[in-house]
Design goal:
The protein has 11 helices and 13 strands. The chain is α/β, with parallel strands linked by helices and 364 residues long. It folds into 2 domains: 6-135, Response regulator (Rossmann fold); 175-362, Nucleotide cyclase, GGDEF domain (Alpha-Beta Plaits), CATH 3.30.70. A hairpin with an 8-residue loop joins strand 12 (337-345) and strand 13 (354-362). The two termini are 72 Å apart.
């Protein structure tokens, strides 16, 4: 509400208008006037007063109809209306209040009553304006929170929840744009899954994948890996992007060992159902190009490069229970992991042999 408050006086009798103007201006208020109902409606939209003193008996449009129209206009802010009437019956007062009046004064207007009612209505106006501002702030906050939840939801499709939240908190998704970074790439899949899927019922395949993903998914979150994609039983995870971490290779190794144990507990259960399956993992460390791909309704975050292909090739070469890693990654984790040196191997798609190690377990 402005200071001083602006009050619109509406009355078709000039003497009444002048008396109210003098009294209100002596109290420090700004006063605007209207001579009839039509002019009152115009003045309201022109001046947006903080309070209206509205005479009921007027030509053209009476005060009751003016009040009804003003209260029905949702484009106008809240403006308290004091109905001014020469009639003092309860029926007349009620008619004014039902039309939209917030209070009333009877003619001749008592100066004391005028002061009390004007101040009371202006206090209500001030409180209403404060609540409106608070509501607008609350609405904006809620909309911002909804937007944040939607953004977090989108990011959680391929990031650990804590990483998604960190990106949102930073208020910047530029780190999801195309860039180059060194990562530890992790690829795993089930041995014998293709043969199994060729003969099994679709419902059995979905149930098995649900058990498999339910066992390994929480582990990816635990080690804050970035889940690139599911490819049936295959899964690509990488570390050190989009949020850098100090020990990507160690995290990848610990994830691999825990994931192997988790799937090992499922394999006997599947065997009892007649499903002969195994599990293998391949890991490599190197530089990749990473970023968001897709279109407006569906985005994914992916990594492209030789290091990703190498991890996938090692996964394909791994026997049941093996975790094959490149020599570069092995060097980064040798202080925390027991490994078996398998020497150099020819790997499909690689121009020269690759040093390969098999992870045994964590050092005690």
């Amino acid at each position: 509400m402005r200071n001083p408050a602006r009050i619109l006086v509406v009355d078709d009798v000039a003497d009444n208008v002048e008396i109210l103007r003098m009294r209100l201006e002596s109290m420090g208020y700004e006063v605007v006037v209207a001579e009839d109902g039509e002019q009152a409606l115009e003045r309201v939209r022109e001046t947006l007063p903080d309070l209206i003193l509205l005479d009921i008996m007027m030509p053209k449009i009476d005060g009751l109809e003016v009040a009804r129209r003003l209260k029905a206009d949702t484009s106008l802010p809240f403006m308290p209306i004091i109905m001014v009437t020469a009639k003092t019956t309860a029926q007349d007062v009620l008619a004014g209040l039902e039309a939209g009046g917030d209070d009333y004064l009877t003619k001749p207007i008592d100066h004391g009553a005028l002061i009390v009612r004007v101040r009371a209505m202006l206090r209500i106006k001030a409180l209403h304006d404060q609540i409106t501002v608070l509501n607008e702030g609350l609405e904006k906050k809620v909309l911002d929170q909804v937007d944040e939840l939607e953004r977090v939801g989108r990011l959680k499709r391929f990031l650990a929840p804590q990483l998604a939240q960190a990106i949102i908190s930073a208020g910047d998704e530029k780190i999801l744009e195309n860039h180059r970074r060194e990562v530890a790439a992790f690829f795993c899949d089930l041995r014998g899954f293709t043969s199994f899927s060729e003969t099994a019922e679709p419902e059995d395949i979905m149930d098995l994948l649900s058990e498999y993903h339910g066992a390994v998914g929480p582990l990816i979150r635990k080690y804050e890996g970035t889940l690139d994609r599911f490819t049936g039983d295959g899964m690509l995870v990488f570390f050190n992007d989009p949020v850098p971490c100090p020990d990507p290779a160690v995290r990848a190794a610990k994830l691999a060992l825990e994931m192997r144990e988790a799937v090992a507990r499922l394999i006997p259960v599947w065997a009892k159902r007649g499903h002969t399956l195994g599990f293998g993992i391949g890991m490599a460390q190197g530089y990749a190009t990473l970023g968001r791909i897709g279109f407006e309704d569906r985005f994914d975050y992916t990594a492209i490069g030789a290091v990703i292909n190498l991890a996938a090739r090692l996964c394909g070469d791994a026997k049941d229970g093996q975790i094959l890693v490149t020599g570069r990654l092995a060097t980064a984790i040798e202080e925390v992991v027991e490994m078996e040196d398998l020497g150099e191997r020819e790997v499909r798609g690689m121009s020269r042999p690759i040093a390969v190690h098999n992870l045994i377990g964590l050092k005690t």
